[in-house]
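Hi everyone, sorry if this is the wrong subforum. Our group has a chain we'd like a structural model of before ordering constructs, and none of us has done structure prediction before. Sequence below.
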Amino acid sequence: MKYLFCVCLIALLVSCAPSRFVKPLEYKQHAITGSFGGALTNVPGVAVIPIPHTSLGYGYGLRKNTTVYGSWYTTAAVFGVFQMDAGITQSLWRDSLNRMGITVSPGVNFMVDVFEKNAKVWPQLDANYYFDYKKWTKETENGKLKQKTNSFYFGFTNWFELQSTRAHDVTQKNRLIFNPQIGHIFERNKWNFTLEIKLLAPYASNQDIVVDYVSPLGKRGALGTFFGCTYKL
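Answer:
Right subforum, don't worry. Here is the predicted structure as tokens:
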């Protein structure tokens, strides 16, 4: 249990959720979101598994090209850490056929240890390019249209460290946590399903820490896998 507690706390220092909204919602549309996944770790005597971060969230189409959102991290809450994020997804560009586009998502990630009363804030900036490679519409027996879209995207997530020192007054060397990502979206009328792979802090050493991270870069970074779902109201 102590090992699991350390794993979860350390994993909070890297991105622990997929991109919230790669494409903005429709104007005045509501959505409920959920996510599962995290950095791949080698758990002694068990297997290589992703750290089981979970979160629940909400999004709203504020304008045609603007979505606001907020999320609560449920796994962190189990270990006495209240964590939330909030932000805006803004479309910067899309082609005339609405098949591809670029979005940015500035936001903030906040957490507080309810036992020690320690709190931290990380500004966050996501950017993604998406491409709809297959899109079709089917009319059902009751006359309703059933739409399906498959989309590929890639981009990055940035977390910004505001404090100049870490624990025990150690100088903070990594003021920017950079995480490139690729993903796929299965978009339906009401449901969206997202699969995302993220390379977490590929420049940072993963040696001599409690967690045994798995990374394609060996001694640097960690590989994260995430699953997200969205229900549009």
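For your construct planning: Confidence is low (pLDDT under 50) at residues 1-13. The chain has one domain: 2-232.
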